[in-house]
Amino acid sequence: MSSDGVVRGTPKDSSEIELVDITPQLLSASQPAKLNAAVPQELLSYKPEPYRIGPGDQLYITVWDHPELTSPAGVQQQTAANGRLVRSDGTLYYPYLGSTKVEGMTIEELRQALTSKLAKYIEKPQVDVNVVGFNSQHVLFQGAFMKTDPQTITAVPLTLGQAIGFATINADQANLSDLILSRDGHDYHIDLSSFGDLPNIPNDIYLKPGDRLFLPYNDTKEVYVVGEVVRPAPVGFRTVASLSLTQALGRAGGLNPATSDGKEVYVIRGAKNLENTPPKVFQLDARSPTAFALGDQFMVRPGDVVFVGAAGITRWNRVISQILPSASLVTSAAAANYSATH
Q1: Where in this chain does the record put each Polysaccharide export protein N-terminal domain (predicted)?
Q2: Which of 36-45, 65-74, 280-289, 318-327 shows the lowest mean pLDDT across its residues?
Q3: What are phi and psi of 236, to 5 degrees?
Q4: pLDDT, tens digit, 9 for 90 and up, residues 61-73
Q5: pLDDT of residue 77
Q6: What pLDDT, on the 0 to 100 scale, is given for residue 26?
Q7: Does one domain contain both 97 and 152?
Q8: Are 135 and 88 in contact (CB under 8 A)?
Q9: Is the residue at 279 inside a domain?
Q10: What pLDDT does residue 327 have?
Q11: How many domains does the chain have?
Q12: Same domain for 183 and 115
């Protein structure tokens, strides 16, 4: 217990570390269903509702054979000049009817309501309603997009693919594996890179007003390759959603042929939380070429540490290189002492 009275976690000893061999059976058991991994089912199930009018929308209302109601600014004016603004309180002013609450109504519901009310003043009114300015509903963008301006929702349903195409992904900086769609207080995580095998999925996901799309940056998405490799270094995922063990080793130049032990290729997972949770260590015996086929199916995760152990002769040489300087010093001292006494 620390001085502040809080019981701190203690490092786990090596007996608690789980060592798992990378085998075909392990890879088969860990393969997720690609569709479910890429797209939450709730998003696929959502179907857009008819557009509902909101404050800021501009409406063009046509009453056939009554130009004074259709084009109060004059038929020679542009359509926008004869539009009618939905005010901030959700009401619309219209001749004969005064202020009418229209917020939340569909276009068809408003058309029918106007037809019914105008029938008191006009015999069999023929009414049409169009939205000429969609200003009340938007989808928001944040993160690694080239354009983060809000995108307007219109009467034509907006798909995820269309929205992403509008915003344009910053390919050099985006983490495609974790697009976050926030809707109604819930965050949905979407793996965009999986859409390469499911090309129609982005157009099967419809967005709704108020959705927020956040595409994180890839600057913290790294695997650390250390030990007996040619170029030990952090390896970034960049635009790819997943990185295999073989790819990570390849980006580090591969195993050092002079010093590495092919049977000691480890992936250490959970190293950042050693105080509370023992890490899981996966081992690949890479002495045969076929082993790299397994490594190509084993996906590393951000924060993993890939460690390649040294061969026995390498360890022996390093021990000797540390002993010999000390032995040389001892021998030199002994020789000097002998010379001084004789």
Answers
A1: 47-131
A2: 318-327
A3: -85, 150
A4: 999 998 888 876 5
A5: 56
A6: 81
A7: no
A8: no
A9: yes
A10: 43
A11: 3
A12: no
Q: What percent of the chain has pLDDT over 70?
A: 75
Let me know if residue 270 belongs to a domain. Answer: yes
Using the Cα atoms of residue 240, residue 244, residue 248 and residue 249 in order, give the sign of their dihedral.
Answer: negative
User: End-to-end alpha-carbon separation of the chain, Å?
Assistant: 63
Q: How far apart are CA 113 and CA 90, in angstroms?
A: 15
Q: Is 15 exposed, middle or buried (0-12, 13-18, 19+ CB in 10 A)?
A: exposed
Residue of 23, 27, 18, 15 whose CA lies nearest to 280: 18
CA–CA separation, 170 vs 164, rounded Å? 11
User: What type of residue is 95?
Assistant: P
Q: Which domain does 128 fall in, by range?
A: 52-133
Same domain for 102 and 141, yes or no, is no
Neighbours of 128 (CB within 10 A): 14
- Torsion sign over Cα 6, 9, 10, 16: positive
Q: Which residues pair with 44 in a beta bridge?
A: none
Give me the DSSP letters along 131-151. Answer: EEE--S-EEEEEESBS--S-E
Q: DSSP H helical segments within 31-82, as ranges?
A: 34-38, 41-45, 67-70
Within 8 A by CB and 6+ apart from 92, the residues are 59, 84, 85, 86, 99, 100, 102
Looking at residue 166, which CATH number applies to its domain?
A: 3.10.560.10
User: What would the mean pLDDT of 6-32 be, rounded to a whole number?
Assistant: 63
Alpha-carbon gap, residue 56 to 85, rounded angstroms: 6
Same domain, 225 and 316: yes
Residue 66 located in a structural domain? yes
Nearest to 135 by CA among 71, 79, 58, 61: 58
127 falls within a domain = yes
User: What pLDDT, on the 0 to 100 scale, is given for residue 182?
Assistant: 96
